[in-house]
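Can't paste images in this forum, so I'm doing it all in text. The chain is below; anyone willing to post the predicted structure tokens underneath?
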Amino acid sequence: MSTSLLYKAAWVFLHLIFTIVEGLLFYRSYFLRKFKDFSKSKQTKTDKNPAEYIKLHREYLEKIPQHLAVILGLEEPDFDTLSNLIYWAMACEINYISIYDHKEFLQSLQKDFRDFVQRHQTIPGHVAFLNAPEGSDGNGFKRQIKVQILSRADGKQTIGNLCRTLSQEVQRGELEVDQIDVEFVNKRLSELTGRLPDPDVAVYTGSFCCTYGFLPWQSRLTEFIPMGSQKDFQLQDFLSVLYQFARKEQRFGK
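Text version of the structure:
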């Protein structure tokens, strides 16, 4: 067989492979669009009363997280999605939600975000932003949730500062080295970060898992679950996260 025939055969083979791949990508895109359209049409039925819809699913969950964390990756904060997440979590009786923005966009817009959440309330209850000057304790509300905005300074930097403080206390004779254990560090970190329990589950944006420096000490037992893009995150996706968490068997290092 001549060299020219081999080249032609190779070209035809590559062209065939390219055509097959192109066709698969086309049908994948087609079915994804159809699935999203179906999800949106289904979502409109739940928008009328999301609290009741969540309550129905709540009965089938063996456990729910006490503390939910949201890790914003490379995306900027989407107020609509984050506001919905807060109210969905409150409807599911989750007590705390932390939003970690390593780029610190949300920190600079905290007042705007708080006002947005209050104006777009979708479920009755009380949302208390920690460290907010006008915050209240929410007494008298059956449903309430505490929201915490976190940045890089709350992660490794806080641990580094605590290590430096403990070292200085040991040098001054105010603390014995034998006193420093896991429970002691937990207590001291809790005093610095608002006395919230460690996150049970964290959802992260983007297509790959990256914590971006999120609370390295407090998240050692946290379950990490992808949420994709904020703009595409719907109530069904939130419930999927809860079902995934409920099925997790936490061995705590055993």
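The CA atoms of residues 67 and 197 lie 7 Å apart. The two ends are 63 Å apart (CA to CA).
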